[in-house]
Amino acid sequence: MKQSMNILALDTATDITCACLHVNGHDYPAALDGGQRIRSTGIMPLLTGLLEQAGLEWKQLQLLAFSQGPGSFTGLRIGAATLAGINAGLHLPVLHLSSLAVTARQAAVTDQLWVVEDARAGEAFVGCYQDDAAVMPERCMQWQDIVSQLPPGRFVCHAEPPVAMPGWQRQPLLLDRATALGQQVQAVLPAQDKQCALPVYPAPAYMQLSQAERSAHAR
């Protein structure tokens, strides 16, 4: 059951930047499809447009939600910085969401489902879900270890896997990401009397070393 709150959610973990505004039991999803330059300049107009569409002012928001990753380093940094800037004056609680759980929700299935998202550098972000709940901790794995160590099953991803995955069955992403983002907010939203314990600063979950960190470790 949806809570009657004004909630603004932002997801910049994938190539598609999306947001969803929840107002009076209704979701307003929207997406911004483009590269990093479009992302960095387009997020605020995207969010402002949602507020205007719903007839809402910034000061009427009650909670922010952040798809914290794992995902694109640059995307997560941009998203976190944007919400941090917005929240500097609002001081709202920030609900942190798993970007892999949002992807799982795009498949619109309740049976066990793997999410395997390419993380580059020969690695992937991996999660497993059933009935909208994680059945194992999310992790970053080498692609060859996924094939050799995990039991084949149904999976979803945004980019084509860079390796052959015999026995695995890729499933379509049926829901647009902005709609799935709004659904995930409602699925994990704590009761209102517990929301005061949420942080006010968005914290990305990178789950992987940056290229600069990799270079430093290699020295």
TrEMBL record:
Query: One Pfam family name from the record?
Result: TsaD
A GO biological process held by the record: tRNA threonylcarbamoyladenosine modification
Extract the InterPro entries matched here: ATPase_NBD, Gcp-like_dom, T6A_TsaB
Residues of the Gcp-like domain:
41-129
Can you say what this protein is called? Gcp-like domain-containing protein
NCBIfam families recorded: T6A_YeaZ
Organism lineage string: Bacteria, Pseudomonadati, Pseudomonadota, Candidatius Mariprofundia, Mariprofundales
